[in-house]
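Obj.: predict assembly geometry.
Materials: sequence records (below).
Method: joint structure prediction, all chains together.
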Amino acid sequence: MSNLLAFLYRFRGVLVFVLLEVFSLYLYITSNAYHRAAFFNSANAYAGQVLERRMQVLDYFSLADQNRRLLAENTLLRQQLAPPDTAGREADSVALPPLPGDSLRRIRYRRTAARPRPDTLLLARRPLPARNPAYPLVPARVVSQTNANVDNYLTLNVGIADGVEPGLGIVAAGGVVGRIKAVTAHYATATTLLHSKTTVSAKLRRDGTVGSLRWPGDDPTHALLDYIPRQNRLARGDTVVTSGYNAIFPDGLFIGIVDGFRKEADKNFWTVRVRLGVDFNRLTHVYVVRMPNKAERDTVEARAGLKPTPEEVAP
Amino acid sequence: MKNLGQVVIQLVRYVLYAGVYVGLVSRLVLFEAGWCFLYLGFLLFLPLATPIVVQLLLAFGLGLTMDIFFDTNGLHAAAAVLLAFVRPWVLKLLTPRDGYDAQDSANIHQMGGQWFAVYLGLLVLVHHTAFFVLELGSFRHFGFTLTKILASFVFTSVALLIVQLLFFSQRQGRG
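Observations (raw structure tokens):
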């Protein structure tokens, strides 16, 4: 027994080292598992507070830049609000032909039913309902983010209290940003498009070909669009939008534009480089989107055997 | 009593290094390739006589703190624990002819520039190699990873050298 203790004591350094190293690597390797305790990430309440305080200080240094961009966005929104005089104008009543038996041949007018239009916000070049209680759009502030790592994350200052759940999509004015990964009461962490495990189902808006967008891990302004068949004709400047094939993003949200493409000798698909619409280096205000009937859609896909579990990350 | 004082000093150093790193230094990324792992200063400049188990636990704790802030889930911890494990061996490799004195610390004024350069260089290189290779999880973009390792190596080393020259006095090391 004392020999054993002496042995353990002699090699205590190696033993503790192996123990801690294996534990860290276990945490690291299993970190992409979908459901994880929210403690070991920055959605943790204490880390969230520290990062939020840091953001409050650092905000002062980028105020001019932020104001300039908000101004640009406002201009865009105002242009949306004030369309040219003739565009989108609807008559409040329509003229109907005279009744067959009317000898005076009077033209009749009928009021069109007033269609209440929901408030919308123009995000990722698509109007999304802003106040729909069934699937609210949650505005959030980026508290902390990384851009230059291989796997990049955001921390947002919204949480369960604001109706945010793991798996919801995030968009900004410029385009698709990422997905919520973990939430606590008041904070959420999200994987951005710049993450090796993130894939987004995307399509070319011109012809509707669906592919899968992923980030190869080097350049934060570009991503790759896979699975576009070689017989497709491509053009630089084609718009890439979300396909709506999974229950994360609505159909047609802007992702980026095609910047270049080439044939690989041994593949049946184009390798398409996409310039992302979101500038991840200066991301401050984002919105969490929720798809209507997401749970029901997940359930039916799980029942059909398309998804192993309802929360599985679908490409 | 002396031990208690030592513990308090190390706690203050822990908070300082972690706080400065999270609040300020982690935002400084040179050309998307060079990070400054300033918090390694806490581990590198611990007293030379610190027991190995304590060093490993401190490294794990510090690494995990960073992991919580930067959502890396054990990446910082794994690299830091490796650093703490290698440190005694580097110290043994660099033992002066007449051994270390009881009050010796990793201080550029006490141990000399050459000793310090090798000590700092070796350990930072080990840490950065482990960190960036683990982060990638493969050898795909090897050239880019190598650039990251070298750029961060230079950045971290220069920053820690500045910390030494600014905060470590001729007689006793704290910082």
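Conclusions so far: The interface with chain A takes residues 22-23, 27, 29, 32-33, 52-53, 56-57, 59-60, 63-64, 67-75, 77-78, 81-82, 84-85, 88, 134-137, 140-141, 144 of chain B (CB under 8 Å).
To do: check interface contacts against the pulldown list.
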